[in-house]
Design a protein that fits this description.
- By secondary structure, this protein is α/β, with parallel strands linked by helices.
- It has one domain: Glycoside hydrolase/deacetylase (TIM Barrel, Alpha-Beta Barrel), CATH 3.20.20.
- Helix content is 35%, strand content 18%.
- The strands form five sheets. Strands 2, 5, 6, 7, 10 and 14 form a six-stranded parallel beta sheet that branches. It has a two-stranded antiparallel ribbon with strand order 1-13. A two-stranded parallel ribbon has the order 3-4.
- Strand 8 and strand 9 form a beta hairpin.
- Helix 1 packs across helix 3, helix 3 runs parallel beside helix 4 and helix 6 packs parallel to helix 7.
- The longest helix has 19 residues.
- It starts with a helix and ends in a 5-residue tail after the last helix.
């Protein structure tokens, strides 16, 4: 407990110093019905070795979460999108792939601030490794059950096996292959979690109109893309845009992603 409090005190001070030169009035610049949906992947202090656009350092993630909390934001779930009263200064936080770093670096801060988040799981890699810029460990089903029990973490699908097809994804396979993949994910997910998932995020953002039809047939309601933009309250849930966050997004860039003007 003392470690968490000391770290939070440090991050609060750091975030304050970084934004002091340019006072920000977030409440004046974010439309209450425009909801930023943030897309993260892995959290690691070795991002400079990995040289990718998907890794954020734990310190930067913590500073971003502290900034959100200090400026009155709340992180909600996709299920909250239908609740008008819950969307003022709301964000949605998503993590794709299911890296084990979530439980070590992200969850302690989310729990401290009462922030909700969604993890989109690659079925074939659960409790294993993803060999992308090195072997990166992934969360197990036991860890997913633990996270879900907190009431803060929702679990979505990142397909069962289609993530391996970097240049194709869901758009490069037949409807039958896609449906089989998604139904297999749902079957395993129900066996492990006791229910099916309503959330899907397309690998590499690759999909087409037929993909959406197949996803809905497989029971998915919230269909996430990698298109940059805000979700506008009242839009349908079949092509939800997200804002990808990388280690290049220091606090001032992060704020601009949220629509905050200096």
């Amino acid at each position: 407990m003392s470690f968490d409090m000391t770290r939070r005190f440090f991050l609060t001070a750091m975030a304050t110093v970084m934004v002091m030169p340019n006072k920000i009035f977030a409440s004046d610049s974010v439309h209450p019905v425009s909801i930023p949906i943030l897309l993260y992947h892995d959290l690691s202090s070795k991002w400079w070795l990995m040289k990718d656009d998907y890794t954020v350092t734990p310190a930067l993630f913590a500073a971003q979460m502290e900034w959100l909390h200090s400026n009155g934001y709340k992180a909600v779930s996709f299920a909250d999108l239908g609740k008008e009263s819950s969307l003022e200064k709301a964000v949605i936080i998503t993590f794709d792939d299911g890296y084990a770093s979530f439980v070590h670096y992200a969850f302690p801060f989310l729990r401290s601030y009462g922030f909700k988040a969604t993890i989109n799981i690659i079925g074939q890699y659960v409790g294993s490794y993803i060999t992308d810029q090195g072997a990166r460990p992934t969360l197990s089903w036991d860890e997913y059950r633990y996270l879900k029990s907190s009431g803060l973490v929702s679990l979505g699908c990142h397909t069962d096996r289609l993530h391996a097809f970097r240049n194709q994804g869901a758009a490069g396979v037949s409807d039958d292959v896609l449906l089989e993949d998604l139904q297999r994910f749902q079957s395993i997910f129900k066996q492990e979690m006791g229910t099916t998932s309503e959330i899907i995020a397309w690998p590499y953002g690759l999909y087409n109109e037929r993909s959406i039809t197949v996803a809905r047939k497989a029971g998915f309601r919230y269909i996430l893309t990698s298109k940059q933009g805000f979700y506008q309250h009242g839009d349908n849930y079949t092509q939800i845009p997200r804002i990808s966050i990388s280690n290049k997004d220091q606090l001032f860039t992060f704020q601009s992603h949220l629509g905050v003007r200096r």
